[in-house]
Every structure is written in structure tokens, then in C-alpha cells.
Fold:
Amino acid sequence: MIEWRWFSGWTEEEMVPRLARARTLARNFPEVSGEMTLQGGWSQVRSESVLGRESPGRPVPGGLFERAQQVLETFDFSDPRIVAWHFSDEEPMQGRTVLLELRALGQQLRYLCGVRVGGTREEHDEGCSVFGFSFETLHGHIEAGREWFLLKKEHESGEVRFHIEAAWRPGQFPNWWSRLGFAMVAPRYQRAWHRLTHVRVRELALKHPELIGQLASHGRLAHAGHALGTAPVQFFAQRAPGRRETQLEEEIEAMNRAHGLRALGLGVLAGMRSMSAPALASRWLTKTQPDSEDRLARTLAHPWTPRVLGLLAVGELVADKLPMAPPRIAAVPLTGRMLSGALAAASVTTERQRGVRLAAAALGALAALASSWAFYSLRRTATKKLGVPDVAVALTEDALLAGLASRLLPVSAHQAGQATLSPA
Structure:
């Protein structure tokens, strides 16, 4: 079944007979779910993210769970820059055959493979509602395995989560260089696809109701894949045993990396101007919806907080230019900057785990310490050794601060991770 092309894909007229042929193919692995284990040579992949919350109880009509369910039903969860989906929406979901157009190297190299919906789930019990389905790879696919896409709502809390669970191993390849390339780049593309899949479900369900349930295009076949942005999620993987021992990769890849970068960036801001970090964090939190149980974030998100912190930040910008301003590395100012960095970093960390928040606070404080010394040294070097006027150096530092602040906390990053919704 597998075909590959450089620089272009397949027209719809070319795909129609290929989809018909794919319907005649069997899956390219004989094992059932219980046999697809690490010991049996199957790599395990699991990723999950919180889409948001709605009212407790069963899914709210038109609410977050139902909107996310529609995203899954139209296969719009896959980023078309990596995998595009082509199918007939006249086929029932159970047993539906789909052509996957795998895109690599800037979408210049493309493979066409077949998969089939192997199972579906729709359950509602006292504690949880579940919707989802699995795909099974067919003969000619470059991977072999089964992948589940599951949407779950906890009735007590109203929290809605999206899960992807897969067992896979390399499949069939049309040539030797495809096999070599797959071994080299597949992990990278797999991680990117998982992150972007979670992002797409969140973005569509939370911000693009006009796209929900709509196909990207439709002719003789249906085609999924609206163009959307990116953001982080958690990623977990276990490699099957091979020449190396089995490894457990628990990469809080984009999510923990995001926490770390935010904490680091806010600490750097605090070292440059002590009030800039909490002012930026407060302004960001007011435009997002922090967890109601998060006292620190709720305090900084109070409507008057960013105004007060903003005035203090402006005052600091003016005071920094005055000759009587104390050096930032003196004990009291330096301690204040470290506390400012720690507070700001902890407040924007969306993880509830105490350890993660403490780690973010520590990183923010250390970054503020390093930033204070670094910019103090740079400022002294510029003024004392190079003869640059102090005001010019201070204004340059202000410009750097403004540039960093503008890129550090985009509103969409938080909303994509932990939005709290009211019933639609």
C-alpha cells in the first residue's frame, strides 16, 4: 500500500482508488492488545493534557467535552504539517478506513499509508464519562501498532482530559533510506505530533467553535486539518528492549520546559528590574483564568493588583536612573530581586504539585541572582571602562527588558494548558 513522493502529494482523484484499495487490506500486526508489551518488542507511548473544566456531572450540552468530542470525530486533532487525514465521512466510524499522508522534511517528503478505526468507546458511569476510538495500522504502513485517542471527564471536578495511548514498532518501508531516516527522525516527529495534537484539541475546543465539526475541505473525500498554532503538553514514552536496556523517558517535555523557561525568564526580569517580573505575571494572570484553588495566582490576578505593581514598576524605571539609587547587588536590593523572581515564577506555574512550584520559585530566585550580578557587571563595564553614559546603558537595559517581557508570557500558552470554562 505504501507510496512516497517528493515535493508534492496526491490529488483527490488519485486518493479515491487508493482509499478503496486500503479498505481491502488487513492490519500489519497479528497481536491483540494484551500481547503488545515492552517485552514483546512494542514501544509504549502515552501523553495526556488537561483541556479545561466545565460544570460537574455528565458532559454539558455544547460544553467543552462535547466540543472536544466533535474535534475527534472529524479527525481534526492532527496537525497537517506532520500528518494529514483523508477519508470518506459516509463510512461509519467503527471500521472506517483512513489514508494518512505523512509529511517530513518541511512537507517535501510524503508517504501515503492506511489505517482503520479498530474500536470505539462511549461510556457514562457515575464517576466518569469517556469517548474515544483506536486506529490500527494496515499493511504497507511504515509503523505497526494501535493508538487510542480518549477523552475523559471526571464528574466530581468537571475536569476534562485528553489521552493518547499507543503501542508501536517499525513497520514496512519502501526503500532502505526510508528505514534509515525513520530510525533517525521518528522520535522527533513523534514528540512534535503528540504536542501539537493536544494543542489542536485545546485550541479548537476552547477558541475556535466556528471550526468544530467542520472539515478543512470536502470533495469526493473528506480532508481534516485546519491550520492552528502550537503549545506544550506532557509526553511519556517507554522504549521496547533492543540493543540497549529498556529506558523510561518521562519528559514533561513541553510542559515542564515551559515552566522552566517561564521561571528562568521571570527571574532574569527581576534581576534587571525587580518589579517587572511580578507586574508582568500579574498582568498575564488577569488575562487568563487561574485555578480557583490557587491563592497566589488568584491574588495576583485580582483587578487592582496589576495596576499597583505596574505603578511600582514605572517608579522603579525612573528611580533606576537617579544617582542615589543603591547598587542592585547590595544585600537588601538583591534579596528583594530574588524574592520577586521566586514569587513571579511560582505564580505562573500551572502545575499543582508543590514540588514543581517550589522548583520554579527556586529557579526564579537563582535566575534573579545571576541576572542581577550579570547586568550590574555589564553596566559597570559599559560606564567605567567604555565611557558610555549611565542613562544610555540604563535605557538599553530597559529596551532589553521590554523585548523579553513581550515574548515571555503570551496569553494563549496558559489558556491552552489550564482553562476554566463556564457551561456553553
Notes: The first strand starts at residue 3 and ends at 6. Residues 242-257, 411-424 have pLDDT under 50 and may be disordered. Residues 142 and 397 are 52 Å apart (CA to CA). Residues 176-207 form the longest helix (32 residues).
